[in-house]
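ok trying this again, last paste got cut off
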Amino acid sequence: MDWLAEIQTSPDELPANTPMVGSLLESSRGMIKTQRQWESRKREIRRRWLRYLSPAIKNRGAAPAYKVIQEDTTDGIVRQLIRYEVEPGEVVDAYLLRPIVSVDNAPGVVVFHSTVNHSIRQPAGIEGVKEKAFGLALAKQGFIAICPRNYLWPNNDIIKAQEMADRYHAKNPSSTGMSKMLYDGQVAIDILEMQPGLDKERIGVIGHSLGAKEVIYMGAFDDRVKVIVSSEGGVSTTFSNWYAPWYLGDAIRNEQFPHDHEELLGLIAPKPFLLVGGDSADGDQSWPIIHRALEVYRLYGKTAHIGLYNHRQGHAVPVEAEQRMLQWLVHYLK
């Protein structure tokens, strides 16, 4: 990756709203200096976060059967709208995309849509700006892609965040919305792994905005995920509305909640992780979290495959950003 050094070099001056972030290598037993020591700390961090997330379903079981609702072809790609039970009694749609000419050992990717009413039609390349049609673009590069619908959409055409979050919490009062998103994303991987020709050792995740939030958790808590691209999600819990009931809830704004997502990037290490910002939800203010994650990544070897690309064009996906996001996945998975 010839631009790795660039995305690991922060500007001399950072914005006034840049957070102070403590080192992940500091522990009650002193500084962590080895990969083995970090793996022990990593298990503690993972347990603590999972306790807070409070998954409503502990064991997913086998991948659900799915039904093909629609199918079309475009630019050498087969695109299927599928429907399945993401959990008992709850039906959801997703798009599956793959090259018409199938190959063995194809890489796979889960593409999480952003906050638009047309939901999964965005990454599938049916509606919206083409720069966010990551599923279609990656299928054209030989990937098998699945684009699942987020639980905040009761159908493929409209978001009802508060209503759907309330419905989830009524059934699962001790759980968090992010736990639901993580579970649904893992079911999407289960379905992806069923696809003929998929190389299960080469699976990535990519998302913008809402989807960028989801991929951080997928990378941290699902070992099947090998590469992560997160665009403009707000990598710190202080950067965007992580406190919303459909994400982590208001408890994260309590002073007694001293944790932030640098810990999750530590869990992700040493997987290749690209953070993309436009000086909106992410940007130069995100550097301290990347710096702390870099300390962990370097315990695994000389080359740390993590960085921040700031395109400085707001909460969007400019063409150059799209190209780099796709290149990151292609480089590390193909």
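PB: full thing came through this time. The longest helix spans residues 35-53.
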